[in-house]
Amino acid sequence: MDPLTQGVLGASLSLSASKKQHLLAAGFFGLVSGMAPDLDVLIRSESDPLLFLEFHRQFTHSLFFIPFGSFLCALILYPLFGKKLQLSFQQSWLYSALGYSTHALLDACTSYGTQLFWPLTTERYAWNVVSVIDPAFTLPILILLVFAMLKRNAWLARIAVIWALTYPTLGMIQRDRAEAVGWQLAKERQHIPIQLEAKPTFANILVWKVIYETEEEYHVDAIRVASSIKNYPGEAIAKLNLSRDFPWLDLNSQQGKDIERFRQFSNGFLARSPDDELSIIDIRYSMVPNQFNALWSVKLSPTASAYEHVEYVTHRDNSSESRQLFSDMLFDF
Fold it and tell me: Is the pTM for the entire model greater than 0.70?
């Protein structure tokens, strides 16, 4: 999720469990600690463009790391602010732990993938119930948090926490409805999916991107789930096949290893780009949900040495045409 949502949810949980005289202090510690796990984005390498993908949402987001991560937050925040706010170190650690504990679970509600149980497993958990940015989720929490601090009323923060549990539950219901439509569409096309997933689109839980995998292809459709169901048939694309798509590639080279790293990050949803024969795209994300216009990819080079990395490329589909297509789906009443 975005930093604002992470911060205000962390603040809400710590504030909801605090004593009245500690409300502001608890909210501050929860706010900072709720955002702290994303400091893992600083783990980067100029020579290895995929390093940040491996470490983002990894050990700092593990449920096992909560005691250690929150301890580090308290260790830094207590001498700077805790003493002045008349907190003990134990209280500082408690409020930091409450804020820190919300982060990974909230991230797992999105479709990006979070390593909740690292180091026991590197599996990325993605429950696909909330978009990484969703004002309908964030704004009520923010408003309730502000009033909780102004009114010095912890119950308003508790209501914010209840909303933070309720909205993903609504998202889960919507996701399941979208997946049911996806399975029906596949059946009508006489396809037998190997796997099928519905993912929330930007800033809403009405329009869903449904992806399913067959033996040779990925298929994508947009499904609008409201009082009535509407589907917007989409595209199909051949699954990545390295021996067919890149016959010149040495799988033991660094580029070959990088593709496997990218595959693990994307949960296997890879295809060769239809726009660039040297690029491999992560098909999970696109501005228009029934298209494969990917938001990021890796680019290979036939002339690269055995030790050279792939190039990581981000794409920003901000064209007016794409925005209009998405808007037409979202507001198609």
Answer: yes
